[in-house]
Amino acid sequence: MQSDRQERISERAYQIWDAEGRVDGRHDEHWQRAEREIAEEELRVAAALANRAAGMAGKARRPRQATGAKKPATPAAKSRATPARPRGGRRTPSGSSSG
Do 34 and 12 form a contact (C-beta atoms < 8 A)? Predict the structure, then answer.
């Protein structure tokens, strides 16, 4: 029984042979081309999986925030917000400074 990889190469070689007009006598060329294409595909898949795993590991360490997004205000942060006071002391109800 052929391995899964050998089966994929065989199917790809057939597709190449069919696409080139089913010309006989080029089996080895089609097989080698199919091997290269399958190997390249395997490398792309492996790289994508590695990038995905690296991305997932990065997310586990520290969550990323979208550029320009603001952090949500917590109720405690809202209650601490006070209007700015003018320098030079407190203002009296009449508007003059004491200090």
Answer: yes
Higher per-residue pLDDT: 26 or 64: 26
Which pLDDT band holds residue 63 (cuts at 50, 70, 90)?
low
Q: ∠43-46-50 over CA atoms, to 5°?
A: 135
Please give the pLDDT value at position 28: 96
What residue spans define the domains of the chain? 1-63
Query: CB-based contacts of 5: which residues, under 8 Å, 6+ apart?
Result: 38
What are the angstrom distances between the C-alpha of 9 and each of 4, 15, 18, 23? 9, 10, 14, 18
pTM over 0.70: no
